[in-house]
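Dear colleague,

Following up on yesterday's call, I've attached the two folding results inline so they're easy to grep. Please treat them as preliminary; we haven't cross-checked anything against experimental data yet. The first protein's sequence and structure tokens come first.
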Amino acid sequence: MKVPNFWESVLIALIAATLSALGFPALIWLLGYGAVNLGIAGIAGAYLIYLLARSPEPVGRLVSLSIWIGISGLALFFSLSPTAFSLMQLGMISIFRALYFQGRLLGILGDLLLTAVATVAGLGAWLHTGSWFLAVWTLFLVQSFFIFFPVEEKGKRSSLGPEDPFEAAHRQAEAALRKLSESRN
């Protein structure tokens, strides 16, 4: 799959902000203030599906999505506050990006820091304007910078990680065969 680019992530931020600006007031009007968690789950779920669709890692998508549905369902069942529910969703987004896009510890820590900055920025936008659009736009706009962290491609070994013993033995055997064939000539 094609990994996300910055402008695609900005477009996702715009779509999420627009949907939240239209959807949250409608959900609150129809179902009451408790429905805010449903809107948060909807936006987070759509974003996680987008991440999984763009992930270079083909394994475990259905299991990951099932785990997210289970955890979110339990949180909705136990009626977490919107703040706690939002933080839980942001944590799961960060975990998904760490699993599917980050291959190195520095990238994972950077992604966690980015999620914290995005959370503070989105909260600041909400507190200063009271606008769903600006809060979600700011949150996801800052989140869109995750694409600048290096993505470890499948099949490529990290230079920081341990070497596969089989690959090392295979290279040594090839080098020995090359030496042997060169010495006979």
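Below is the second protein, in the same order (sequence, then structure):
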Amino acid sequence: MLKLDTETIINIPTIKKAYLNNNIVYKKYIKLDYIEATGTQYIDTGVTLGINRGVECEIAYDEFSNTSRWGASYGGTADTPRRFAFGTQDTAYYFICGGSTLSLGTVDNNKHTIKAFINNGTLTYSIDSITQTTSVTATACNLSFFLFARHTNQGVQHYVKCKIYSCKLYDNETLVRDFIPVLDSDNNVCLYDKISDKFFYNKGTGDFIAGPKKLDYIESTGTQYIKTGVYVDSNVDVELSCQITAKGTQHLFGVGTNGKRYLLAQQSSNNRIIFDYNTSNVRIISTIVGYTSGSHILKVINKEFFIDNVSYGVSSGATYTNPTEARIFGSDNGNGHMKLYYCKIYNNDILVRDFIPVLDTNNIACLYDRISETFFYNQGTGDFLYE
């Protein structure tokens, strides 16, 4: 059964009773991975931000333009301290914050986390892990903050073609908007704010494009697996958030063939989570008993094995050639019982797979890769459970 957060029973007593008698839960919204604007849509957040203000937005630009801007900005020189807007400029990400205009990083079509916080005249701004600080002159905004376009004293301008995955707005260090992309109960694509418990809809023309329906996890029961299309060797790193759901041998990720192993698993003897590289003779055994300990984040970085950021050592396994395609929920030598919350795969430090659990357009539970924008389906038998 699909369960989604912020589910409620409608607060009309007769309807509420009917829903309860028929064991029906009213779904307030369905989470999406993102909503996408094509250059004519925008959302008014209804927030005018003070002197100390901040934004944190997960965004991917579909098109780069020196007029692609979103936020709140002004045309007159005297009004520049009020500005708080973002976009792209030439080949860089662009920050228009108070009296300063700043560039950072190199633009591409991938998802990035953009942050900008003004606090007592100091601006801290970042793209992912790249962070800068500078002094700025800032005064309170008097225009509401827009997403997907720029709110100016001439009205709405500078539409942006982009995807937004989440967005948080802060006023004087208080979180005042916490947006996630959703379908409302009438299947309208919009943003839902967790703070005000309200939907925010397109104020422009046309329609937002809906991203995949996002799930908390998909769960294998020992017969399902997914091929990743990535052939794993010493150049490959992985990060997955998962929960093992059964005792004994459980293959979670990778390749199980001896001599070409790259395997995250739970071993049979003591149910501890392990990492094998090349052969099982150089196995790294953690102290974590998998199936009784809840969810964990497993990582392999340069053959070093981590669970929840605690290192359990570096594999001494020798580098091998002719690697094999990795699987999730199993390997070429066995499957596993596991809930998967996400999985990221890197090759030579480049993110090549960014998997999240979703329902596709036919409501089939699968993994969606944000990098290739492709659905990856069960290659085993039976169906994934999901929530």
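For the second protein, one point worth flagging: The first helix runs from residue 13 to 21.

Best wishes,
A.L.
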